[in-house]
Structures are given as C-alpha cells and as structure tokens.
User: Fold this.
Amino acid sequence: MISGQEAEILKKIVKHSLDIICAIDKDGRFLIVSEACKDILGYENEELTGRKFIDFVCPNDRVKAFHFIQGIISGFRKTSFESCHLHKEGEQLAILWSAFWSEEHEALFCIGRDVTESKLVNEKLREKDELYQALVECGADMFTLFDESLNYIKIGGSIYKELGYTPEQLIGDNPFNFIHPEDILLVQESLTEGLASTEQIRLPEFRFKDAKGKWRWLEAKGINLLHNPAVKALVVVSRDITEKVRSRKKLKESEKKFKSLFEHYADMVLFKNKKGVIVDANAAALSFFGIQKQDILNRPFSDFFPAEVIPVCKQTLQEALNGKSVRFEIDVPFKGKDVFTFDVVKMPVEVDGEIIGAYSILRDITEISRSNLTIRRQAERMNTILESITDAFFTLDNDWNFTYTNREFERLFRMGRKELLGKNFWNLPRGPLNEELNKQLKNVAEEGKTVHFDVYFDRMDKWLEVKAFPSEEGLSVFINDITEGVESKQELEKLSLVVNKTTNGVVIMNAVGVAEWVNEGFEKLTGYTSSEVKGKRPDYLLQARATDKASVKLIRENRKKAKSYTTEMMINKKSGDKVWLLIDVTPVLNEEGEITKFVSIQTDITERKEAEESQLQMTNDLFKQNKDLQQFTYIVSHNLRSPVASIMGLADLLTTTVEKDPETFNVSLRYLKRTADQLDTVLRDLNQILSIRNKKAATVNEKVELLPVCQQVIKTLEEPLNECGGKVFIKIEEGISVNGNKAYLYSIFYNLLSNSIKYRSPERSLEVNIKCYSNNDTGVVISFSDNGLGFDMDRVGDNIFKLYKRFHTNFEGKGIGLYLVKTQVEAMDGQIEVNSRVNVGTTFLIYLNKF
Amino acid sequence: MKILIIDDEEVNLFLTQRMLVNCELTAEDIHSFLTAEEALDYMQTGSDKDYPDVILLDLNLPVMNGWEFLDALVPQWERLREKCRIYILTSSLNHSDEDGAMNHPMISGLIHKPINSENIRIIIQTGNAPS
Assistant:
C-alpha cells in the first residue's frame, strides 16, 4: 500500500508531468486526466472527464484508435500506439500513447506524449531520405560504404546499372579484388593518405572489373566518416568514366598523330598566324633552313625568303586566310644557293569558326621539275633525232597502231603523219605497204626477235633495207632506201666474178702492203693459196725485186705520191720457177687522201719477156754481127784494099819503068811479091777468124788440161826464146782443166808468148810468168805476165784487142794476134782483161770455165 | 817543090816517091816518114823555110794516126797554111774517111792509092797556082 506521503508525491508527479496521464473506462470515457492535457490538447480537465476518448481523435484515425484500445482492453500485449488528435484550436496533433489495462480498477491507464514535433521532423527527414534515395537511384554516381577493413557494407546508386553488380554480390567483399592490379597500388596509397585526414579523399582514376569481366575506368571521391557513430563508414562516391578516358585517350592519340605527322612530314610545313608570323615549323623546314626551332618561331616568314617571292607569298597567304586553300608552284632563288622549285599548298586553319592562321606545305620539286625539264628536252631531242635520221622510221604499239612516223618515212611512202597516226598497220587507208614486210613484221612480233632484211617494193620500184626491233611498247622499224646499194652490189658481184675468174692475178693489200685478199688468178699464177698469202707481204713471199734502179725509184716515188704505177718484175713461184709479171698497182685512198689499200693486178708476161730476151739476144748477136761486119768492111777497105792498092801501083810502075830503070824494076818486083804475100796473110787471117766464129758452139765443149798445152807452146817457141835468153815460169795447179777447145788454148798461149818475145824490153832479159788457179767453184783464172815494153793503158785501152790495131812502130806486127786471142776466149764463154805499164810489163787475165 | 810523105808501109813510100820522080820532081825535095811522130818532129824542129809545100798523109798509121797528126799540127797551122797543103793519101775506100777529109779545114784534098800521074799533076798545078 502506498503511504500517504508517497501518494502525495505521486499526485504531484502526475500534476506536473509533461505527458498526459489519464485513465479511461471500459466504455472509453475519461475517468481522470492530468493537467498536461491543457498544454497539449488545449482542454481543461473538466472538459475531458466523462467524455469519450475517441471523440478527441481525428476522424481518419478513430477506427484504428478504437480497435487498438479495444485490443488492449481485450488483453492484447501491444501497449503503444499513435493516433492523431485535434487540438482545441483545430490543430492536428500526433500523440504517442502507451497504455495498459487494469482489471482491478476496470480502467485503462494511458500516458500520452505529444510527438507532433518529432513526427514532423521524422516526416521531413523521411521525405528527404526518399529524395536522396531517388536521386541516388536515378543518378550516374555509385555510392558505397566501407567499414574500417575496407569491406563493402553498403552500396547504392547506379552500381547495378553501371557495373551490373547487385548489392549482395559486393557486400562483405573487398573492392581491391575488383581493381586492376596495375592500379591497386595507386588507389591504396591515396586511400591511406585520405584516411589519415578528415579532408575529402580524391582517388586516382582506376580500372574496375564489371560483372561481365570488362575493365571500366572509374573516378572516385571519398569521405572518411568512420569516426561518425551515426555512419561509421568510409563513404565513397564513384563514377564510370570509361568513355571519357577512352575519348581522352583517343584525343591524345590523334593529337600525337597529328603532331607526329606535322613533325615528320617530309615536306616543309610552316604554320603562320594572321600576321604572317611563323608559329610552328616542322623538322623538314628547320632542316631546310638549317636553323633551330627557337630561331624561326615568332619571326615573320619574310625573313626567310628572298624578296622576289614575298609579294606572291603574301598574296597567297591572304587568300588562305580568307578561307580558301591555295596551291601553286614557285621558283625561289635563295641567296647563295641554287634556285629551288616548290609545290606550295596553303590551307586556312579554323578554330571555333574563326580563321587563326594558315599552314604552308612546301614540297621541294626542284629535282622533279628539273628532271621534267630534262625529260621534256630529251623527248624533244629524241624527236629531233628521229626526224633527222636518214632512215625512214616508224613505231607501232602492241595493237599495231602507228604511234610515230618521221619525215623520211612520210617522204618515202608519200603518206602524211596525220593519215597514219593511230591507224592500224593491218588496215591502212591505202592498203598494205608490202607483203614481205608484213610477213616479216608479223614474225618479229611473234618471236620477239630483231630482224634485218632487204625487201623489194614493186610499188616504188625500190629496194629497201628494213630493221625491226620489238620492244615492250611495240615495234620500232627503220627503213633505208638501198636501191642504189643493191644495184651497185649486183654490179659488184659481177665485177667480183670477173676479178675472180680473170687469168690475171689480183691482190688487195692494206696500206703497208700486207695481202688481205687474192683472187684465183693469183693462186694459179704464183702457186700460193689464198690462205698462204693472206697476212703476208706478197713482194717478200715472191721475192719480187725490181730489176733496175729506175723501176725501184719509180715505185718509191709513186707510192709516196699515192699514184698508181706499172712495173715488170720477176718473181719466184712456190715451186721455185721464175715468172715474169707485169704488175699494176693502184692505191685506194680514203676521203683524207690517205692510202688505205693497194690493188695490184699481175699479168704473166713470161712469154713476152722470154721473147724479148731472145729478141735482145738476137739484137745483141745482130749488133755483134753488124760490128763484125763493120770490122770486115774496115778490113776490106783498109787491110785488103791497102795491099791491092800497092799491087796496082807496083804493076803500074813496072809497066812504065821496066825498060829505063832496071833497079826500080827489081825493087818493084820484090815489093810486089811481098805485098802479094801480105794480101794472102790477111785473107788467111780472115778465114781463121771466120772459122772460129762459125764453129763456136760446136768446138768449145772439151776437157782441156792446161799444163800440156802450155808446155807444147813453150817447146814450139823454144828457139826464139833461147835467142833472146827469155825464161818462162809456169805455176799451174795440178790436174786443173778447163771446159774449152785445145786448139784455141794453144793459139792463145802461142800468141801471148809470141807478143812477149816480140815486145820484150831491150834493157832486161825476158821473164814470163804463167799462173793458173781456181777462181771459185766454177771458174779458172789464167794469169800471163811479162816484164816487156808494156803500153800506155790510157791511150790504148780496149783497142789493144781490136783487129789490125798495132801499137808499136818498128816491130813486125799484123795487129791480129790479140784480136784472135779475145775471139777465142770469148768463143769458150770466157773473158780477157789486160793491164800494162810502159816499160814495166803487161799482164793478161783470162777467165775460163772449169771442166 | 818540097814534099813530105808519111806512110807506115815501105812499099807505099817507094811507090809514091817513084811516081813523084817520074813526074819530074827531084828526089831531094821528097822526104819520107814511116811514122807520124817522126814527121811531126821534123815539122816542129825545122825552120819555116823547111816547111814542105805538100804533105801526103796516110790515115791508117800505128801509134799516132793521120788525124792525130793533124791535131798535133794545129798550133803551127796559122804559119803553115799559107805555104803548105795537106793531102790525104789512103788505100781506104771507106766513105767516112773521105767525108772526114773533105770537111777538115786543114786538108786540101784526098787521093786514093795508088797515086797516079794525074793526081801528082793536080797537086803540082794547085801548088803553083796562086791560092
């Protein structure tokens, strides 16, 4: 039981409680209500007591409240409920009731707290939460909460949408299991740093594996709220930036690409701003100008180009700045360098619709333009050459269409170039050129081999020489009019036939006389074959010698003057036989007048030469005979006439003086007899001489040993020798014999020894030396000398051997002895010489043939 | 009249002398020489009054022949020509001898052997006649 004091305290507590404390009966009527109801509901105690609780509940809540109360009364355990009430002033109030039923008092004790305020706050809070939730769910960001071990504790936002993970798949797991291994370290570092501070954590971009296993780029920010008991988590907001990263990468790449392209572009690239100042230049440009980048940047382009080209550059730049691409070629004469030719492109550069400058791309085409020029010149030259060649010339392409004809071709075929170019060879307006030509050209095209042939064109009555060269482009054909050549060739062939078949020898020699060609006639004439002569000097081979000095001189002079000459020569045939040739040599000169060849024509003149020789022999014989005849005439007129005249005179004298002068008669008679004898001697001499001459050939071919003949002569003349005390010394090689006539040799020795005795010197006794020795293989020399009177060689000379020449007076001499000696020596095919000195002696040398 | 005879044959000298004597010439006035050398010596050594009126010269002589003798006389010819006439006396029938003699300025005439009285008469007459 509660003491009074206690009851007093309880009373006070109820009275001052901020919550409504009340009791309600089983009908739901207030039994007792604490004073707090005035503060909360605005009703006085009296106004409530006895009244139904339900009446003070908002109409919307009355059913719920009724059931609840009934439930408590009926013994349901739930003791708390909230219901909405109306303030006296009409305001709705939320009151949280806690109640229990007391059977003892048959009353429901209730405590009610005004929760309007907190409910309102809660409501607002809830609303806000929903908003956030909606925002989170609908936004692109992903929200995650981590515990201190960095395990997922809560995830939200667009995680599923973005990465495909449901919260269940992640919660409890560690995010590092999903982060790209290369990025883990960076993320960890940032986290460690961030967790140490209270500031916002900014994580680096990292890759995160999505539900499909693909890497996604994420960026994330976090706030450390682990220390906040209401949160106790690391809150991280992340966003998928894969696209952004990708496009950023792409941008970077394309930027790089562009830069690289710019830098490495082979041609010079200059970027100029609107004022013409160079803002950028690539490596090629720097290399061309040979300067560093810093030296070219921010300088006007006009600093780098010669003044001549500046106006054009400025004008084109302006055009580019006006939004138009310009392309042009320009020759730039850099100072101290060659003239460069550039192909220039200028392009405007537009940023946000505004032109900020222009790119200039300069391509150095100096070489190209030069080679273009060269090619053009060469083409022109080629054209000139093709036009100027004397051959007619045309080309066909692979489809047999004419691609070129030169002037000579047009002239030769009387066809215009326009008429032919592009026309097909097989379908010419005036029909095919020539069948043979067509056939050959077809072959050339098929076999791809060069051909060279001569063809006769009836249409023009001409011989043409055709050379056709196949090439990848088609056919090149050269045509040369050789009509004259062919005709002269035919002429030449005829001539060649003549030269070859003629009986004359023909040799063609080079400038130094070496044979290059010989005809059949030469082979027959000399016995040497063509191959034996070629490459040799025919004159050496044939041992040809001009026989007389005049010929040698003639040959030499004519060769020097490059004149033709004719000479006669004896040559040795291969067989050794000798042949006389009439040789006619004509030099062949080149345009400079130098000798290039000799043409020698030989005619066999042996017969003529032999005839000439025999004629010469005959002439000589005749001459000699004639001389003999003259001699005989002389003899007749002097030596015969002289005694005859004497006899006539004596006879005359005898007839007139016989009677009156017997003395004269007798003398005359004596003279008459002597003169008659003399006449007889002359006649005998003549007879002897004539007989030697006539018998000449028949009588000289016997073997005559000299020693016995000599001894016989000495014996015959022994008496006169002894009378004058003369001595003869003989020195004759033993067994030596000559081919001759014994009687002649006897006569020779007899005459010579007689002369020696007759013309001996009165001052000394006579000595005669006869020597005989071999001269050479075929000859014998007889030397006959005395120490007699001798004679004057200057005065007498060869007259010593003449008939009836006498050189000594006071001596008996007929003048026939030495004449006989000479005649006999010559009859034996020998020779006689004489040498003499007055009062010293005389020596005769006789050359005879050895037997 | 003084006459020189040059001939290598004794028989000819004898014959000519006899013929001259027969024609009333005195033997003392006739000088005979067997060689030209001897005759030349006579001509060159003797005085002008010894010069003969007539020389009868044979051409065919040994060592020095008639022509050579004439050549040797050329130096004195200017003095000689007024007085002396030279006749060739030859047995030769050779025409060249004859032509040579007729054209020679020193020769007055040619006589073929044997000499006869007619020849001598002409010689003497010509010698007496004013030249």
Observations:
- Chain A has a mean pLDDT of 84.
- The interface with chain B takes residues 633-634, 636-638, 641-642, 644-646, 648-650, 652-653, 656-657, 664, 667-668, 671, 674-675, 806-809, 813, 815 of chain A (CB under 8 Å).
- The first strand of chain A starts at residue 20 and ends at 25.
- The two ends of chain A are 217 Å apart (CA to CA).
